[in-house]
């Protein structure tokens, strides 16, 4: 198993500046996981396709000063249709993978703006903005960092909590309590979301991991206080492709939660691989469950 982690980490690191997240193949023809997956329900056709005749949100590129990194950093912010500064909005922080940056979700196939526009049009989501930051907390935060950025991903919570969240709360009309704050991400960003979300339950009440990578801490580290998680976490939700070799990082957490009686969802996307097919499905479902 240790060799599997090493191979997965090395594979994740072999990305170029223009590459999307690599697929991590299943090791062996089949792999059995001793967990009970939650029911998979297919997303409706067209959930990720632009629709005519509905209102559309906007995406803004922001720059903020990071105290922990010591430089100016960037993030994309999705504002819903008819964003109104006189209203208060919840905030979803949506993280990318090791091969991406603040543009991966928005420009590399995740179409979060389209998914959210359609959900708004159908009345399926609460009022929220979506912040897509660069989770590589170092001065050279370009995609070319590869494995050299691994530590920077692990330290992103300092930048996120210390600088980005205060910037968002100063410049946008949003709630400032944890009950109106969620974090989710894909691959490396999924691991970050589980690590930071469960590690800072005073900051985030909703946590999502989509195909979470080997940076995900083991369950006993993530949840040292079972009663606290039961009391303070409002949603722990995960999805991973059935053909994704990283599934075990989600199942180990699911098994722990089931044993301890912690509410936790894990969906096995049928034959899903390590790509945006699964991650878009994750965003579509997670966004409907938060802030309700």
Q: What characterizes the major β-sheet?
A: 8 strands, mixed
Order of strands across the widest beta sheet? 1-2-4-3-5-6-7-8
- Please tell me the overall pLDDT: 90
Q: Helix coverage percent of residues?
A: 25-40%
Tell me the fraction of residues in β-strands, as a range. 15-25%
Class per helix and strand makeup: alpha/beta
Question: How many distinct beta strands?
Answer: 8
- Rg from C-alpha positions? 18 Å
- Reading the helices and strands in chain order gives HEEEHHEHHEHEHHEHEH
Separation, N- and C-terminal Cα atoms? 39 Å
So how many helices? 10
Structure report:
34% of the residues lie in helices and 18% in strands. It is an alpha/beta fold and 292 residues long. The chain has an eight-stranded mixed β-sheet, sandwiched between helices. Helix 3 packs parallel to helix 10 (276-289). The relative contact order is 0.17. The model is unreliable at 1-19 and 26-30 (pLDDT under 50).
